[in-house]
Amino acid sequence: MSTQSLNPDRQPTVLITGAAKRLGREIALHLATAGWRVAVHYRDSVDEARKTVADCTRLAGASTAFRANLANETAVRHLLPSVVEEFGYVDALVNSASTFEHDTVATFSFAALEKHIRSNAGAAVLLSQALHEHLASRDARGAVVNLLDQKLWNPNPDFLSYTLSKAALESANTLLAMELAPRVRVVGVAPGLTLTSHMLSPEKFDTLHKLAPLGHSSTAADVAATVAFALTNNSITGTTLLVDGGQHLMKFERDFSLM
Predict the structure, then answer these.
(1) Is residue 172 part of a domain?
(2) Domain that holds residue 63
(3) What pLDDT was estimated at residue 10?
(4) What pLDDT sits at residue 84?
């Protein structure tokens, strides 16, 4: 994916939250391969962040890790300025980090909701605001990509607080696109079942991954390519690209991890 739509005269810089491992790492490597300088945000995964930085540096020539707890407002407000201080400028933001803890209506609490809302929605809004302010100081334009979930279009009551926080982020996606235009475009990318976890055996993951009209859900490469497309297409904002093999068209009574 070319970076020419941003600025042909210099190497673009992106901050990716949750880039130390899993999907965030795959997005970081894909963008580094395309020529982006990558600011790798992490919270506790120190060793994984170092590896992602090393791999991105090998691919693009520049990458640095930045530690921050996205549930802490002060830490979030300091994150993007720290990236600017290191790299000189930032062109784009990918909000990939996500708190994902199980609860239901029966176990729901204000504390669980607040924990998810802070890191999954509040941090994304503050970072988008900070990017807009930074771009305005440079009289430049940029983009934000928010990682969502096909679950929002195919709801089930599992992981209630997580789902509510992603629904808030999906609404913020629209509101930020309106408020931050024309300087910042805001696009959602909603994967389906993409990577396995400790809750799924390899055999179960393979079976569930095939539960889609196309016979497969999203791969990490699919999602990363879509993020790159969203970042560099100057005519997309205020919408969400579902990358899930059509899983959102099917009705699932439970979350994948509990099926």
Answers:
(1) yes
(2) 13-247
(3) 85
(4) 98
